[in-house]
Amino acid sequence: MSGYYASILQGALLTVGVSLAALVFAVLLGLAGAAAKLSGRPVLVTLATVYTTLVRGVPELVLMLLIFYGGTIGLNNLLEALGSKATVDINPFAAGVLTIGFIYGAYMTETFRGAILSIPKGQMEAAWAFGMGRVRTFLRITAPQMVRYALPGFTNNWLVLIKATALISLIGLQEMTYLAKQASSATREPFTFFIFAAGLFLVYTSVSLWVLRKLERRFSMGVKRGRV
Predict the structure, then answer these.
(1) What is the dihedral of CA 135, 136, 137, 138, to 10 degrees?
(2) How many domains does the chain contain in total?
(3) Helix, strand or coil for residue 69?
(4) If residue 67 lies in a helix (H) or strand (E), which one and from where to where?
(5) Average pLDDT for the chain
(6) What's the confidence (pLDDT) of residue 49?
C-alpha cells in the first residue's frame, strides 16, 4: 500500500508542475486577449471575442479532447500535405499545459480586462501627457493597480485551474488522479486512494489561498476597504 501512496505523491509533483506551467501560459494569453479587446481595432476585438466566447461556452473536457486529438491530427495532416512522412505525437505534459493554459487564458482575459477598465482612464492619459510610453505606463501605472482589481477573479481561476488538472489524466498524463485511479483498480479500494488525492488537492488550494490573500493585502495597502 505504501508504494501506491508514494506513486501518488510523485504524481502530485507532476500536477503542481502542470498547474504552474499552464498558469504562466494562461496569464500570457489573458494579457494578450485583454489588450486585444481594449485595443479598439475591430479585427483584434473580434478575434479575442470569438476566443473567449467559444472557450467559455464549451465544456472543458470536450475542449481538452478536441485540442489534444484535433491538434495531433491537424499537425500530421499538415506534414502529410507538405510531403513529409514524419508523424507527430504530442507529449502529454506539453499537451496538458497548452490545453489547460489555452482554456483558462479565456477566463484570464475577462479578469484582466475588467481590472484594467476599473482604473480611471485619466491616470493613463496623464502619464502619456508627461511623455511616458505605453509600455512604461502599463508597467508603472496600470499593472500595479490592475493586480489589486484582478486578484479576486485570478484567485478563482487559479483554484479551478488546479482542479482541472485532474482531467488531463484522460490524455495519458500520469498525474495524481490517474495514479489514484490505477491504485484503486489494483487494490479495489477506491475510497482510500481518491480521498488521499482529494486531500492533496485541498492542501494545494489551501496554500494557494493563503499566498493569494497575502498578496491581496499587500496590493490593497492604503486603500479603504468596504464593510459588509
Answers:
(1) 50
(2) 1
(3) helix
(4) helix 60-81
(5) 85
(6) 93
Residue located via cell numbers 495524481: 176
pLDDT tops 60 at residue 228: no
Range of the domain at 136: 2-227
**Structure confidence at residue 1 (pLDDT):** 59
Helix and strand numbers, DSSP H then E, in the chain: 9, 0
pLDDT grade, residue 225 (50/70/90)?
A: low
CATH of the domain at 175: 1.10.3720.10
Q: How far apart are CA 66 and CA 80, in angstroms?
A: 20
Retrieve residue 216's grid coordinates.
Answer: 491581496
Do 34 and 109 touch, CB atoms closer than 8 A?
A: yes
Handedness of CA 159, 12, 5, 178 (dihedral sign): positive
Cell numbers standing for residue 163: 482542479
Give the separation between CA 114 and CA 74, rounded to whole angstroms.
Answer: 34
Question: Does position 101 have pLDDT exceeding 80, yes or no?
Answer: yes
Grid coordinates representing 211? Answer: 499566498
Residue type, 36: A
- Whole-angstrom Cα distance, residue 188 to residue 76? 40
Question: What pTM did the predictor assign?
Answer: 0.85
CA 117, 122, 125, 130 torsion-angle sign = negative
Residue with more model confidence, 167 or 156:
156
